[in-house]
Amino acid sequence: MNIEGVLKSYDLDMLTITTLASHSALQIVHGAKLEGFRTALVTLRSRSWFYKQFSNLIDHFIVVDSWSDLCNNSTVSKLRELNSVMIPHGSYVEYVGLECAEKIPIPLFGSRYLFAIEADQHKKMEFLTRAGIPTPRIYSLKDKIDRPVIVKLPGAKGGRGYFIARSSDEIVERLQEYLSAGIIESFDEVIIQEYLIGVTAYYHYFYSPILERVEILGADIRYESDIDGLKRLPPNIAIEIGIEPTFTVVGNIPLVLRESLLPKILEYGIRFVTTAKTYVKSGIVGPFSLESIIDRDLNIKVFEFSGRIVAGTNLYLNGSPYSHLYWNEPMSTGRRIAREIRIAIEKNAIEKVLT
Ligand code: AMP
């Protein structure tokens, strides 16, 4: 795949910021428009009516019958005609599959080489450990499980199918069911993590290779069913009914952090970027997120990361209390992406932000 060659054929004054119609697409096209770019959405036929409500923000619709059509020759040539730059968001790999996500012959904003690490829960945790970022303990099925653990399925399943367990037997029994149902192909695909007690906090960062700095653009809390819904039941009733908590994300709640926590949070972001430079080809570019639990002693442990824009950034279409400090104007993550591309073009350094 020769992305440099594709870029040479592009008119950089006529780039089209493109993404898949889901996740944070509206924020991305909104930000792109504010920065003066043309925009395109690749959308499933069934969803196009909804996105057409926002045709003030979307110049071109590329309608497909299935997400896997993204890598078809006809879609790729339409994208190239538009001088498209694809913005991979949190659902991108989940929708189009790892192979198409990595190999699509269209310039991507950010690194396409991080996707394979993100697809593997074990590699992800290894990456965080290398970066010196505190993480929860990881168990294997052979270990003695001495505390509650959370068992996670691969990919960005939005917390679906996760369960909390207290013993290896319980885990094996459940995973056998998942195997028989074809939900997983092997036990190695899941990760067993210590279940951390504390509050959840998800940080939105942006690494600019052009300005050579890491920015904190915001933070959020996920609103998850039923783990958050269970708080609405008196505990004795919840126990009586025996509801098992699930972690399906249904939305995001804004979060402003104690200012004294910010240096540590930024430090972890910087460690993440520094490690990515040595560990992943092209390092990390643009938005990424660390997902954490903060305990009663204000220790932060990171249980997951995303190397792309996360949906919690949708809260801050008009900027966040943090993005304002850097930019003093309404700066969403979507707009920040477009701004980075714009500055890169002005500085003749587009290859620093696209792969
Ligand atoms: P994830 O798919 O890793 O983002 O996890 C989905 C949800 O599960 C998170 O938003 C948390 O509510 C919860 N969760 C994940 N990992 C842990 C952990 N190690 N300890 C406690 N809760 C967790």
From TrEMBL:
Reaction it catalyzes: 5-amino-1-(5-phospho-beta-D-ribosyl)imidazole-4-carboxamide + formate + ATP = 5-formamido-1-(5-phospho-D-ribosyl)imidazole-4-carboxamide + ADP + phosphate
EC class name: ligase
EC id: 6.3.4.23
A molecular-function term among this protein's GO annotations: ligase activity, forming carbon-nitrogen bonds
KW Manganese (keyword) present: yes
Family: Belongs to the phosphohexose mutase family.
Stored PANTHER family: 5-FORMAMINOIMIDAZOLE-4-CARBOXAMIDE-1-(BETA)-D-RIBOFURANOSYL 5'-MONOPHOSPHATE SYNTHETASE, 5-FORMAMINOIMIDAZOLE-4-CARBOXAMIDE-1-(BETA)-D-RIBOFURANOSYL 5'-MONOPHOSPHATE SYNTHETASE-RELATED
Official protein name in the record: 5-formaminoimidazole-4-carboxamide-1-(beta)-D-ribofuranosyl 5'-monophosphate synthetase
Organism: Ignisphaera aggregans
